[in-house]
């Protein structure tokens, strides 16, 4: 089977070194396996997404010396998100939640790895659906009705998908047609991604994505969650410390291919 990887940035700001590392990693692994490398712009966060950031991303990737095929941005795929949400709903996997952030903050807390878990107060309630409602996964129900799920991670081996840390996670946001989890999982399937590569900061998300694949009968790709690069060797990564964006570096006349090779020196971890 041909290897298909992707880089899926959100155009909410300019790219930094960590993004460059991720893009190079996805690109190189596809290239080394004679596969394909795709770019997908994850732009459903309407108010925060701006087309000029996406335009800048393409220039950054070119500057790094990469070639890619671009697939449709998430904003072009909204119908597929609502279809999937409808299917999940019809099967009883989702429930409406009208709670505000403030209400959730005032409820008794369950704390999971991904932050404070929602305690399920809207579950089974008759909701006044005239106002905005999010759709949450009914995790107890889903877990009771399914088998044990795993995914194959080329760095971490076989991993058991356990989404309990997330609680009843939101799959359709009040203000958006999907959450990151639902949109990215559907898109990876639609784009024929066979190897999802991303930073290990997103490792816990994969527990949820694996369950979404099961509930929607989607193909299950392999994964590699790569280490996050540290601010060493003068590469200056951190946004908070005001390190330059790829755009800054590009516009200052730095050679993107030299930077790409420096970043490639860091790709010496299991799985590569
Ligand atoms: N749009 C997500 C981000 O920029 C992509 C995460 C992923 O690769 O799944 O963090
Ligand atoms: Zn609620």
Q: What does it look like?
A:
The structure is a single chain. The protein is 34% helix and 17% strand. By secondary structure, it is an alpha/beta fold. A three-stranded parallel sheet has the order 1-2-3. It has a three-stranded antiparallel sheet with strand order 4-7-10. Strand 2 (36-39), helix 2 (51-63) and strand 3 (69-70) form a beta-alpha-beta unit. Helix 6 packs across helix 7. The longest helix is centred in the first third of the chain and has 16 residues, at 17-32. The relative contact order is 0.18. The structure holds glutamic acid and zinc ion. Glutamic acid is lined by residues 8-10, 42, 184, 198, 202.
Number of strands: 12
The structure class reads alpha/beta
Share of residues in helices? 25-40%
- Placed side by side, the strands forming the largest sheet appear as 1-2-3
**What can be said about the biggest beta sheet?**
3 strands, parallel
Mean pLDDT: 90
The distinct ligands, each listed once, are: glutamic acid, zinc ion
Q: What global shape is seen?
A: globular
User: How far apart are the first and last residues' alpha carbons, in Å?
Assistant: 18 Å
Portion in beta strands: 15-25%
Low-confidence stretches: none
The ordered string of helix (H) and strand (E) elements is: EHEHEHEHEEEHEEEHEHEHH
Q: Count the DSSP helices.
A: 9
State Rg. 19 Å
